[in-house]
Design brief:
alpha+beta, four-stranded antiparallel sheet
C-alpha cells in the first residue's frame, strides 16, 4: 500500500510540475509587447500616489498588451486632474465621463466602468478603448496622449493614463487614469493541485474498498 501511495504521489508531482513552473512567472495571463520606452511615473502626476500604492510604478507610451488566456478584463476609474471633461470611449461610444478633479481612494473596488470578455491572443489595442475630451485632444492606443502604467514585476493589473493636452506640454498623463484588472478563466496552479490531489484520494479510497470487498468474499 505504501509503495502504491508513493508511486501515485510521484505521478501527481510530475503532473503538477508545469503548473508550478508557470506560477513562477506572474505574466502568464498577459504579456507586455512592443516598444522599449519605459520610465517611472512623471513627478507631476497627481494620481501617482494611487498608482504607487497599486505597485504600478513604471510608465510607457509604446507598449501593447497581449492576453495569453481566456478571461475577463474589468475597467475602473482611478483618478483625474483636468480642467476639461474627459471620457472613456469603447468603439466610439462613451461609457464613462469624469467628474473633473475628482480622485477615488478605493481603486479596483468601486467606480467600475466596463468589462471585456477576453480570448487568448487578443490585444489591448484591439478592444476599441480610447479617451475623449470636450476641449482636449482625444487619444487612442499609440497616440501621444495615451500612456500606460504597469508593475515592474507584472501581475494582473495595469493602468492607462490620458494626457488631454500633450501638444501644450501636458505630459503627466493624469487627466484621466483608468485601471484594468485581468481575471483568467484558467484555474490557478494551486487550484489544479487541489483538484488532482482530490482525485488521487478518491482513487485510493476506491482501491482500498475494492481490496476489502475481495478479502471479505
Amino acid at each position: 500500500m505504501k509503495s502504491s501511495f508513493k508511486k501515485l504521489f510521484g505521478i501527481i508531482l510530475v503532473a503538477c510540475a508545469p503548473f508550478f513552473t508557470g506560477a513562477a512567472n506572474a505574466s502568464t495571463s498577459f504579456t507586455f509587447v512592443g516598444g522599449d520606452s519605459v520610465s517611472g511615473i512623471p513627478g507631476n502626476n497627481n494620481v501617482g500616489n494611487i498608482l504607487t500604492t497599486l505597485g504600478l510604478t513604471e510608465f510607457t507610451t509604446a507598449r501593447d498588451v497581449q492576453f495569453n488566456s481566456n478571461g475577463t478584463l474589468d475597467l475602473f476609474f482611478l483618478g483625474s486632474e483636468s480642467g476639461f471633461i474627459n471620457t472613456v470611449e469603447i468603439n466610439g461610444e462613451t461609457v464613462f465621463t469624469e467628474d473633473p478633479d475628482g480622485l477615488t481612494e478605493t481603486p479596483f473596488v468601486t467606480d467600475f466602468i466596463f468589462s471585456f470578455n477576453i480570448n487568448s491572443g487578443d490585444l489591448l489595442s484591439g478592444l476599441g478603448l480610447s479617451f475623449g475630451s470636450n476641449r482636449g485632444t482625444p487619444a487612442a492606443f499609440g497616440d501621444a496622449g495615451f500612456g500606460q502604467f504597469f508593475s515592474p514585476v507584472e501581475g494582473n493589473r495595469f493602468a492607462l493614463g490620458f494626457g488631454d493636452n500633450t501638444g501644450g506640454g501636458d505630459a503627466d498623463f493624469d487627466d484621466l487614469v483608468v485601471g484594468l484588472q485581468f481575471t483568467s478563466a484558467v484555474p490557478e496552479p494551486a487550484t489544479w493541485l487541489m483538484m488532482i490531489f482530490g482525485f488521487a484520494l478518491v482513487g485510493l479510497q476506491v482501491r482500498r474498498r475494492g481490496r476489502a470487498s475481495l478479502e471479505l468474499s
